[in-house]
Design a protein that fits this description.
Strand content: 35-45%
Number of strands: 11
Low-confidence stretches: 2-38
Mean pLDDT: 80
Radius of gyration: 22 Å
Largest sheet: 11 strands, mixed
Length: about 220
């Protein structure tokens, strides 16, 4: 092969790689042991995804210009804080939505998500309760965690992981305070309704790390 043919082949390969990267859908996060090995030699793959939902949800999206679109399949990348529309087909490319104000799920129990400024940055928040000049929200984040030590021969496989973290906040104007779900934090939040809250948690077997369960506590406290 002469040098002219070699240059032509290289250019074709470079173009193919660029096109492939551009067409790779971000909704697919599969367990690829060989890829993971190249990225992190002490893990065997990736657990979970950076997405809020395992599958795209149908929702009503409100934009900054006031337009509202219903029954739109969407998901949210919590690692980046991006909302995107998932078009038909597994291999279709997601369409990012930059000018969104809120999105409400339309399946089962309705859940309303928006971007809320917590501290110095915008966070993906879920509205749990609103009234009396305040809002109670659940802030959703996903952080990419990698094992930092080599596993020994007695332990199981190690994975990189997108860890879902949820924190609750009481927002009143410019004042923002975190609601802790520890025993002490729950006592401070529930106040005179502490006993009722504990009875509700026990009766309904609530898991406070689940926003839909914690919402029941919030509604009781603010009743």
């Amino acid at each position: 092969m002469n040098w002219r043919n070699l240059v032509t082949v290289c250019l074709v390969l470079i173009s193919f790689v660029r096109v492939t990267k551009a067409q790779t859908p971000i909704q697919e996060y599969t367990l690829d042991a060989s890829r993971s090995f190249r990225l992190n030699a002490i893990s065997v793959g990736v657990k979970c995804t950076p997405l809020l939902f395992e599958k795209a949800q149908l929702g009503t999206i409100t934009l900054t210009n006031g337009k509202i679109y219903e029954n739109i399949p969407f998901n949210i990348n919590l690692n980046r804080g991006d909302l995107f529309i998932q078009t038909d087909g597994v291999d279709s490319d997601p369409f990012p939505v930059n000018n969104w104000v809120s999105v409400e799920t339309g399946q089962g129990q309705k859940r309303l998500f928006s971007r809320e400024r917590i501290g110095a940055k915008q966070e993906i928040s879920e509205l749990l309760w609103k009234g009396d000049g305040k809002r109670i929200v659940a802030v959703h984040r996903k952080t990419f965690i990698r094992p930092s030590t080599q596993r020994d021969s007695y332990s199981g496989p190690q994975y990189d992981e997108f860890r879902h973290e949820i924190n609750y906040f009481d927002i009143q104007g410019m004042n923002i305070s975190e609601i802790k779900t520890t025993k002490r934090g729950l006592k401070a939040y529930a106040g005179s309704k502490e006993k009722e809250v504990h009875e509700l948690i026990k009766k309904e077997k609530l898991k406070l790390e689940n926003p839909e369960d914690f919402k029941l506590v919030v509604e009781l406290v603010n009743k």
